[in-house]
Amino acid sequence: MITIDGQPAMLPMMIFEQADPSHLRTYQEKRDLVDRSAKYSLRLFDEASMNERLIDYTIRMAEIFRPFDYGRFEFRVDFATGEIRLLEVNLNCNLWSEKVFGRAAVAAGFTQADLIETIVSESMIRQLVGFARRDAA
Predict the structure, then answer these.
(1) For 28-60, what is each residue's pLDDT tens digit?
(2) Do the Cβ atoms of 14 and 45 come closer than 8 Å?
(3) Contact indicator for 1, 14 with CB cutoff of 8 Å
């Protein structure tokens, strides 16, 4: 989720899958300091049966946290039962181009520079408008 023109906007959804769901990732694996290509994959989420509910949950959660500049709303999905559980909300997530948020931004057509510029610009506009309102009072 990213703020565009003052409103939360969904980036394409991504899914992080691991070959062995019981494996606990090491610090090195989480930070991509070692090769983990055989253990984990990151791809666009395209499960039509769950997309609508995930979008609804994400939009409702975004309204709770507004205003914010960008963030990742993470869910666990059980494909066998259709159950969706909120895992975490990270409003200060990693923006590295090879991580989840950066890859979702690329899928939406952003370059890394565009992504950072959008986040900073939207934040500055929001803060300046808030400052002007306080100053006028």
Answers:
(1) 888 778 888 888 888 999 998 899 999 999 999
(2) yes
(3) no
How is residue 105 written in tokens? 């931004």
Q: What is the mean pLDDT of residues 89-96?
A: 91
* The CATH fold of domain 2-136: D-amino Acid Aminotransferase; Chain A, domain 1 (3.30.470)
Q: Kindly list the distances between the CA atom of residue 59 and the CA atoms of 54, 78, 99, 124, in Å, as whole numbers in the listed order.
A: 9, 20, 22, 23
User: Nearest 5 degrees, angle CA 20-CA 1-CA 60?
Assistant: 95
Rounded CA gap, 112 and 120, in Å?
12
Domain boundaries, the chain: 2-136
Strands 14-18 and 72-77: unpaired
What length does the chain have?
A: 137
